[in-house]
Amino acid sequence: MAIDLEGVDTSMEFCRADALVMSCGTVTLDLARGMVLLIWNKALQIHQLPKGRRNIDEPMLNAAVRETYEETGVRVTPLRLNIATRATPPMDADVSDGAPRKNPQVTEGRPSTEFLGACLYPDPQSDTKALKAVFYFVATADSTTIPASGTQEAHEKLDTTWCPIAEATTKLRFQGEIAAVLKAVEDVKKTGYTIGG
After folding, report:
1. Where is this region: Disordered (predicted)?
2. What is the count of structural domains for the chain?
3. Theoretical Cys-Cys bridge with 134: which of 17, 119, 161, 191, CB 3.0 to 4.6 Å?
4. What is the per-residue pLDDT across 21-45, written as a single tens digit (0 to 9) for each?
């Protein structure tokens, strides 16, 4: 396959670190009860998925788990799923299950805690031009556990809510977050987990 180097050159953009906001969050599911964890943003009057900025040198998955706890008071556990990813498997990994791979550039059939996707958009809270990238991971938690209090930063005005997964498509304000929930559910089922009783 010939690579269009000119096309790559004209489409490639360099984004400085001070113009790129990296955030991480979770799609947290209570698998037994078929619920998804949301936040109610009192300032904006909308439901959202929990997420926040990654700290310097912090691994992305750690940031997603930490931000979810800080915004909701809910301790979550990352869920290992069969997520199709372009991440490279370890050299010693057997990624084949005997079936031909649909796309040799995509790793499938290897459960991991890789992010399931990302939402990209101009950061509406930045005083200067910045691109925001929110990487979502799938996690589990018990929706009947009482959230810890006092975990939010002083400026955050958020309420923790759980809703049936089927209602998330009408509660969430942003299409990108709805797509993240739908992808999480798809990957959970593809991996063999059962949602709800």
Report:
1. 89-110
2. 1
3. 119
4. 999 999 999 999 999 999 999 999 9
Share in percent of the chain as helix, strand, coil (round to 5): 25, 25, 50
Alpha-helix residue ranges (DSSP H) falling in 107-195: 168-171, 175-191
Q: Residue 122 maps to which CATH number?
A: 3.90.79.10
Q: Three-state SS string across the chain, please?
A: CCCCHHHHHHHCCCCCHHHEEEEEEEEEEECCCCEEEEEEECCCCEEECCEEECCCCCCHHHHHHHHHHHHHCCCCEECCECCCECCCCCCCCCCCCCCCCCCCCCECCCCECCCCEEEEEECCCCCCCCEEEEEEEEEECCCCCCCCCCCCCCCCCEEEEEEEHHHHHHHECCHHHHHHHHHHHHHHHHHCCCCCC
Q: What is the pLDDT of residues 91-136, one digit of tens each?
A: 766 555 555 556 778 888 889 999 999 999 999 988 999 999 999 9
| 147 Cα distance to chain centroid | 20
The dihedral through the CA atoms of 50, 195, 161, 176 has a sign that is: positive
